[in-house]
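Trying the structure run again after the queue cleared.
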Amino acid sequence: MKPSLCILTLGCSKNTVDSEHILARLSPSYEIVHSGRADMILINTCSFIADAKEESINAILEAVRQKKAGIYGKVVVFGCLGQRYASQMPELIPEVDAWFGARDFAPLLKYLGVDGDVIQKERILSTPGHYAYLKISEGCDRRCSYCAIPLIRGSHRSVPVEDLVDEARCLAERGVRELIVIAQDSTYYGLDLYGERSLARLLRALSEIDGIEWIRIHYSYPSSFPDDVLEEMRSNPKICKYIDIPLQHISTAVLAKMHRGIDSEGTRALVKKMREEVPGVALRTTMIVGHPGEEEKDFEELLEFVRSARFERLGAFAYSEEEDTYSALHYKDDIPQKVKNSRMDRLMTLQEEISYDCNKARVGGTEKVLVDSFDGQMLVCRSQYESPEVDGEILVRYDAELSGGLNAESLVGRFMNVRITDAGSYDLSAEIISVL
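Done. C-alpha cells:
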C-alpha cells in the first residue's frame, strides 16, 4: 500500500499553486488524503506579516500535537516560514521531522522519495475544477521598504509564455474555465526573459486557448503600469474588467518612505486612467495604515482619496514590522497599535459604505456569472467583477424551470445570465434569466 499524505496550505494563492504542483509529483507514490489519519502531513507556510507567521506556527504546533496523539506519522514543513527562519525553527520546534524552504522544491521531493523538481504543467487542483490560479513568475525585484517577500522568495523570475500556455491548455482540457493570473508583481512579467513588460502578450496567448472564457489579473503594481494591458482588457472579451492593484497609500510622504516608486499625483492619475480606458472596470486595492511616519494628516488624505476613488473592493493591513526589511532597520515603529487599529476601523467603515453603494448601483442589471457551488438552497456565483476567496458573492436561488430542467449540482462550473435583485455591503442577490 502507498503511504498516506495530507497537505495543509496556508497563505496566499501563490502557495496554493506550489502545493498543487507538489501534489502532482507525489500522487504516484502517495495516497493523498484530506482529513483523518495520515503517515505524513506537509504544511506549506506563510510568513508575510506577523499574523501569517502566527497562523503558520499555530498550525505546526497543532500538527505536532496530533503527531503525538498518533494521527500523523511525520510532520514536514516547507514554504515561506521555513525559508525565512531556516536556522531558528528546527531548534524552536524540534518535533518537526524536516524543514524546507520556498525557492527550490527538489530537496523536499527527494526527502519524500521523488527525484527531480516540480513540472510546470502538472497540477492536482485544490480549487473547484472550473477555475485555477496560474502563477506566471516567482520572486520580486521591487524593494518596498516594509515587505519581506524579496528576502523570502528571491529575485523576479518569469515563466516563459510557452510553458504557461501549455499549463493553461492542460487546465482547460480538464474543465477549467477561469484563469486567475498571479505573481508577486504581475505587471513586471517578462522583463527578465524578453527585455520588456510582456503581460499583455501573455494575456493574448492565454485567451486563444479553447475552453478558457475568463482571465483575471491579480497583484499588479502601480509604478510603470503597462498601458497595453489596459488596451487588452478593454478590447479582449475574455479578460475580466477587474484589476487587483495594491496601492498601499496615497500620501507622497508615506509612499516615499515605503519605496513605492510613485507619488500621490501619479497614483491618482493611474486610477483615473484605468477608469477612463476600461469603462466599468472593478478595482481592488489594499492599503497599509500605521506605517512609520504616517501622521494624522497623511491618514486623512488617505480617507479623502478612498472616498473619491470609490474602489469596488478594498482591504487594509495595520503595519507589521518585519525584521531585516528597510522599514525595520531604518524607521522606528512608533505608532501605537491602538492608533493603527482605530485607523483600520475608520478606513474599513468608509469602504463598507462605498462597497454598498457600488453594489446597490448594480441592482436591476443583467450580468453573466460563473456558478462556484450549490449550498443546498442557493447557487453561489461570481461575475467578472468578483474574484474567488477575496470578494463578495452573488447568491442565486435555484429554480428548476428557469434552469431549463438542469439540477442544481450540474450548474456548478457553468455560466448563467442573472438579474441582480438586491444588494448588501459585500454580497448580491440575483435571479436566473438563462443558463449559457
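The mean pLDDT is 96. Worth checking whether this holds up in the mutant runs.
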